[in-house]
DNA sequence: GGATACATGTAATGAGTTACATGATTCC
DNA sequence: GGAATCATGTAACTCATTACATGTATCC
């Protein structure tokens, strides 16, 4: 369902677009929000067209198909956003690794946490840069809300990793655990 | 892979445990980290046993089977945590809804964001309570690291929702967008 | 004796990944 | 003319959800 809605939303915001470009968007600007491979995008677009939520507006060179969202598609998107209870299922590999941290000895745990801290610091910088290009309060630009959320989550994880590093060090100093 | 590792990790930390109890753990204490239904847990345990990463230690009343992790299982877990590059794929329904927020009119968007703020405030309180029961610096307790991460992420989302609410209100005041 | 919780499984379906397969246009 | 990029698809497999199916122990 989420992929379906992501595609409808992208078509609403970008206007007529082909599957290739939509796939690129998942890999580029949407990568910290939702991801999908072309092998998932093309069949999904076909299904959306079958259901009448999108239509093939025109076909271009190299077999290109540009899709547009229909009124039914807009309705479906709005309905999903406003009426359907969000799926709160959490499946966070990062958090899982955090949970399993205490199964490692101190050196391994410290190394892992350091790597995470570095990764999320870099990532926070990257998303922050993206957000700052959209941040202008005049902009009703798409992606501002998502970018802001991305920055906040990413920097929260980076901070956690710093905290965990310090805590592991404190444990070491006390000669605890292992 | 992650479910596999979650099960190995739980068996390492809890000692011999049956599938029913492991499933309960996913629903209770692990729910903000990783989730899995019993229909996924039982076959996965069977596969782990086939591969020799766990063994059935004993069988109890009501057909109960208690699994223990083997040395090979411990090695596999450690290898995954220290050598395997984490899967950074993001598929965050929340962030997706955030991204799609500007496709809604102001009232709908504000209502959505308000609901999210409330949900994540409640959730933050709940995880905070869990964390505080583990927080004692003497504790090498399992779950401290994951609980701390959960609190930080959850409160980051709650803060974001407050920010988004204010930003939508500012847009309204300026008579912007729709 | 009846409700509830414990306990384990399978089947059908949907979602997502990796690999296979093909061809057209553009850039150099 | 060759490489890179644009462009679309399918197949096999893994992962996850929902529903179906069954039986046992305990609590009251």
Brief overview:
The structure is a homodimer of 178-residue chains. With 178 residues, chain A is mainly alpha-helical.
Q: Tell me the strand order in the biggest sheet of chain A.
A: 1-3-2
Task: Give the biggest beta sheet of chain A.
Answer: 3 strands, antiparallel
Shape of chain A: elongated
Q: Secondary-structure element sequence of chain A?
A: HEHHEEHHHH
Query: How many domain units of chain A?
Result: 2
Can you count the helices of chain A? 7
User: What is the name of the CATH topology of the largest domain in chain A?
Assistant: Arc Repressor Mutant, subunit A
Structural class of chain A: mainly alpha
Summed over residues and divided by their number, the pLDDT of chain A gives a mean of 93
Q: Largest interface by residue count?
A: A-B, 66 and 66 residues
Number of E-state strands of chain A? 3
